[in-house]
Design a protein that fits this description.
Elements (H helix, E strand, L loop, with lengths): L3 E7 L5 E11 L3 E5 L9 E9 L6 E14 L9 E6 L3 E4 L2 H21 L1
Antiparallel strand pairs: 1-2, 1-4, 2-3, 3-6, 4-5, 5-6, 5-7
């Protein structure tokens, strides 16, 4: 899933940093983000993932506090960087009732797909 991501973290000297990227992989509790601005390993970040929904007009916002597990540079020889992060899970906010129904449908579809793989 390629969704837009904004993430923030604080450095030990009280400096605040922010970066942007796109998800490469994502689960309920983790994400791998492709970005030019990588936080350091073990940094605690605040992540926001913006999900465009299939109706073209609605969006959902997922937020989580996460810890950076690893940082990779020159991924697959493409001079692209990224990092993986894990947390306790995302909170979800939608922009409308219609967006909420779309998200519910996606969750049910995902659960059905997972049941079929077991």
């Amino acid at each position: 899933m390629n969704a837009s991501v904004i993430f923030r973290w604080d450095a030990p000297g009280k400096e605040h940093y922010q970066g942007e990227g796109v998800t490469r992989d994502m689960s309920v509790v983790s994400a791998f983000v492709l970005t030019a601005t990588c936080p350091p390993p073990n940094a605690v970040i605040q992540m926001e993932v913006i999900l465009p929904l299939t109706d073209g007009g609605s969006k959902a916002l997922m937020k989580a506090d996460m810890m950076v597990l690893r940082v990779e540079h020159d991924i697959a020889g493409n001079k692209q960087s990224g990092f993986s992060a894990v947390g306790k899970g995302f909170s979800l906010r939608t922009s409308s009732e219609r967006a909420s129904r779309l998200i519910d449908g996606l969750i049910k579809e995902s659960e059905h797909t997972q049941e079929g793989k077991e």
